[in-house]
Amino acid sequence: MTATEERPDTSTPERPPRSVPQPHFTDAEAGAKDFPDSGASARRFNYYDPAKRKQTHYEDVTVEVQPDPRHYLSQGWIYGFADGQTGYPLTWTKLKAWGVDDPEPVRGVGTGGGGRGLNWPAHGWHEFRDPNEEWEQTIYRNNANVVRQLNQNIENARNAKSFEQWTRNWIRFVERSVGAWMHVEHILGLYVFAANERSCPTNMHNTVLAVNSAHKIRFAQDLALYNLTLSEEIEDFDGSAHVDAWNNDTEWQGVREITEALTAVQDDWGEAMFVTNVIFEPLIGELFRSGLVMHAAPGNGDFVTPTVMGAGEHDYAQRDLRWTKACFGPLVHDREFADHNRQLMDGWLSAWVPRVLTAARTMQPLWSQPDHRPPRFEDSLDHAKNRFAGILDDLGLETPKELAQ
Amino acid sequence: MSRQSLAKAHQKIQELAWEPQYHEPYMKYGTDYTFRKAQKKDPLKQILRSYFPMEEEKDNRVYGAEDGAIRGNMFRQVQERWLEWQKLFLSIIPLPEISAARSMPMLFHAVPNPELHNGQAIQMIDEVRHSTIQQNLKRLYMQNYIDPAGFNNSLRNFHNDYAGTIGRQFAEGFITGDAITAASIYLTIVAETAFTNTLFVAMPAEAAANGDYLLPTVFHSVQSDESRHISNGYATLLMALSDEGNRQLLERDLRYAWWNNHAVVDAAIGVFIEYGTKDRRKDRESYAEMWRRWIYDDYYRSYLVPLEKYGLTVPHDLIEEAWNRIWNKGYVHEVAQFFATGWLANYWRIDGMTDEDFEWFEYKYPGWYDKYGKWWENYSRLATPNGHKPIVGEDVDYVYPQRCWTCMVPCLIREDIVTAEVDGHHRTYCSETCRWTDVEAFRPVYQGRETPNMGRLVGHREWETLYHGWTWDEVVSDMGYVRDDGKTMTAQPHLNLDPSKMWTLDHLKRLPPLQSPNVLFNEMTDEQRAAYIADYRRQGPAGRPAPASA
Questions:
Q1: Residue B419, strand partner residues
Q2: Mean pLDDT throughout B512-521?
Q3: A1 — pLDDT class (breaks 50, 70, 90)
Q4: Are A360 and A266 a contacting pair, CB within 8 Å?
Q5: Which of B253, B460, B495, B522 is most worth mutating to test chain A (most A CB atoms within 10 A of its CB)?
Q6: What are phi and psi of B426, to 5 degrees?
Q7: pTM, full prediction
């Protein structure tokens, strides 16, 4: 044998085996075995009835997530406020849905859970479904689409140097009054919609309030960041003028007063929502956004601002108003409390419409500020009134006489 | 995305801050805290222009993974032992999430910091996301896992079963009572900052080890939002600390929130991780080891202790006692045993422990077998119906426990039970801290100080009370935990889906009627109660009867 020369060990030192969980074949997929509840009919949530024939994805992820002692909540609420109120009190609005005055099932020693044999829904609030079917996927898809589109619009305008086409007066108008509107949206988003989100009775209600709030807060920020872009793009654009307008301009004090009043509605989420989305939005919101800004902008060389305003307008007209009608319309025709609710809403209309109209009229001088005028204020207001009357008609409510003032 | 910097954009949206000029907003939710010297800083700097696309991208990843899991037949590798416990977890968790959404407006009312309100509003939307993304995951399990029973009626079950109410504290506690106690200290400072680590990080890791990579996909996506929520809580806490008058309330609330979170979350998640897994590698972390890392080191030592210099009184004693309960007093094991004892009152199937499990438990928790091994052997022996009763009705050296009136987990560490008579009703508590919570903390006066906004503990807090005197087949039928043949139970004490091995309502007729420990306790004379408690304290571990007196 010939001795072989030892060769240097060039191999990599062997690593100790890694400790990792091992996959196992379990065959735990649907249909692998036959047993009670293995069939397709057991693969749906069976604790609620859908509003229509088929359970929707939206219903599956929202309905019954929040319990109700009038249904399966056998041990009742386990935390209370200092005054004894618990859960999601139905008295946090003066509106009533059928069944709310019926007593809750009494539970105690040996009563059982009390969920069997109860009619469901136990009261009319549970019948509400958001026609927009908002849940997390829709919230992010819609709002991400909006901000992407707005960013592209603004970026495109910036690249095209389109802001150079703006007239002096239009620049002043945008920096002060378009800017002032961001405060309206911000206050409504945080201190009306979000602030009332705890107070409403079902998961479907608090979800639409959260979504409506998100629309408003996003719109306010859209306007603020648009304002920031304009500060960067237009040499003498005063990015802080909107604060001065909001604090001091006579034209804005009526709107500010009524906006703040909406945050001060006393312990009634229903009134706050109704007044904001049924009265304030068409008579002031759309009046300003569509009736003034979006109409006036093109003639003043501005094709961008209407797209920013239009995004917020679309949120209201196509989404927020839809849930509002689906929420309040059935209460007007409620099988037990229609008269009560109608009187209540009529009262709100009588109380708020004159205030809102007065606030709307304080904005009238704004219609004269752009060089290229929008439609006359009275024409815009008439349009807003017609729109408002149409909403009331859809809800089954009479137009209040105060609208004629 | 816009080219504007985040800092610049965030600075700009501060111009939206509102100082009321004509009307003050209606303040519905009260607090006994004051914020007279509060600093006003928003730690989040989150703007919706970047938030919505970011969340949409996160969503796309989650839903892409869900599609992939179905196409890739993930459920062929999922451990049934694991997924059965998800029937409990996923019936509970969407409610705490949506309750967290509801809690944010309470902070608008209580915390005078417009900068923070922006972050709180975004958290509100996050929580809607979490609730519905989790409910959607449950829907996916229901549609694709072998046994949909328990998923398909989960929101009826959660509202009426003997464990759901324990979990519901993790929801109602966020939205009821003093706004800061509920929405800030209980929710963000303790639940989100400390315990989402085990809920949303440790537990999903265990899911992956059991063939389920969707739970980590969804919950890690959720957890990536939690870091922002933790910042919300931290900012509020610093504001509260700057007002010395709040320190007594902070001390109270931190003690309550810490102990209640420990009692509830460690009970549930500890059981899921230790008894719901098939991964028995000796080098995988036990729940106790995870707790030491995530809660003790990351939360207690790194987050809470540094706050002492700002005047926060940290409940060191309760943190050490929580660890003592987990490590020395077998808290998680006792809870698992209780769940398995009452398997028939549940809506999921509980797998027995095998020799491999025993070996792992003994390795991780030396002495485990002597305490719990025999009982689990009995559990497996009694798993399929064969002329005997369910284990709760058999003599296996287990005394059915009293419930804790406060945390509603039973008084499983027998020597620690305490009692109190409140409004003529005799209550039992798992620990002195739970007695203090009910009798002293949740009261309109605390240590001589008026606390008019503090909440109350209410409701039928012992589940067994409702069914006192009922036969078990009627109980299960009343709760609706029956499969579509009208007799086979949803719950089973094993994983065998052969119908001949499954328990039916008929089998339950062998059991005597259910007796509420609390009702019986209240029917005793004072002398009997004293003797009963003296005996109770000598019971255990593993629920064993007290040894005969020498």
A1: B428
A2: 98
A3: very low
A4: no
A5: B460
A6: -85, 125
A7: 0.96
Distance, in Å, from the CA atom of B96 to the CA atom of A66, rounded to the nearest integer, reads 9
Question: Residue A149 half-sphere exposure, CB side, CA atoms within 13 Å?
Answer: 15
**Average pLDDT of the residues in B93-122:** 91
Tokens 């009265």 belong to which residue? A279
Q: Which pair of tokens denotes residue B137?
A: 């995951």
Test the B interface: residue of A77, A136, A256 with most B CBs within 10 Å: A136
Contact B480 A33 (CB under 8 A): no
Contact residues on chain B for A183, CB-CB shorter than 8 A: 16, 18
Pairing mode, if any, of strands A79-80 and B418-422?
A: unpaired
Closest among A288, A274, A271, A256 to A369, alpha carbons compared: A288
B123 membership: H or E segment, kind and range: helix B114-144
Q: Note every long-range contact of A396-400, with CB atoms under 8 Å and residues 24 or more positions apart, other chains counting.
A: A396/A329, A396/A332, A396/A333, A397/A332, A397/A342, A397/A345, A397/A346, A397/A349, A398/A346, A400/A346, A400/A349, A400/A350, A400/A353
CB A205 within 8 A of CB A125: yes
Mean of the per-residue pLDDT values for chain B? 95
Of B20, B56, B78, the CB nearest to A141: B56
Burial A208-219 (b: 16+ CB within 10 A, else e): bbbbbbbbbbbb
Chain A residues closer than 8 Å to B52 by CB: 139-140, 143-144, 146-147, 218
* Residues of chain A positioned with their CB less than 8 A from the CB of B4: 225, 228-229, 232
List the single residue in B with minimal CA-CA distance to A212.
B125
Distance CA A94, CA A83 (A): 19
Task: Please tell me the distance from the alpha carbon of residue B339 to that of residue B383, in angstroms, as a whole number.
Answer: 14
pLDDT in tens, B294-351: 999 999 999 999 999 999 999 999 999 999 999 999 999 999 999 999 999 999 999 9
For the cut 70, the answer to whether the pLDDT of residue A145 exceeds it is: yes
Mutate one of B2, B32, B347, B488 to test the A interface: name it (highest A CB count within 10 A).
Answer: B2
Q: Locate the chain B residue with the closest alpha carbon to A114.
A: B478
Chain B hits for A151, Cβ within 8 Å:
1-2, 49
Report CA-CA distances (Å) from A194 to A189, A221, B221. Answer: 6, 16, 24
Q: Is the pLDDT reported for residue B265 higher than 80? A: yes
CB pairs under 8 A between A and B: 401
- Here the ipTM equals 0.95
Rounded distance between C-alpha atoms, residue A397 and residue A345, angstroms: 8
Chain B residues within 8 A of A67 when measuring between CB atoms: 95, 155, 158-159, 168
Question: What is the per-residue pLDDT across B66-103, written as a single tens digit (0 to 9) for each?
Answer: 999 999 999 999 999 999 999 999 999 999 999 999 99
A151–B2 C-beta distance less than 8 A? yes
Rounded Cα gap, residues A123 and A129, in angstroms: 14
Nearest beta carbon to residue A221 from set B13, B165, B208: B13
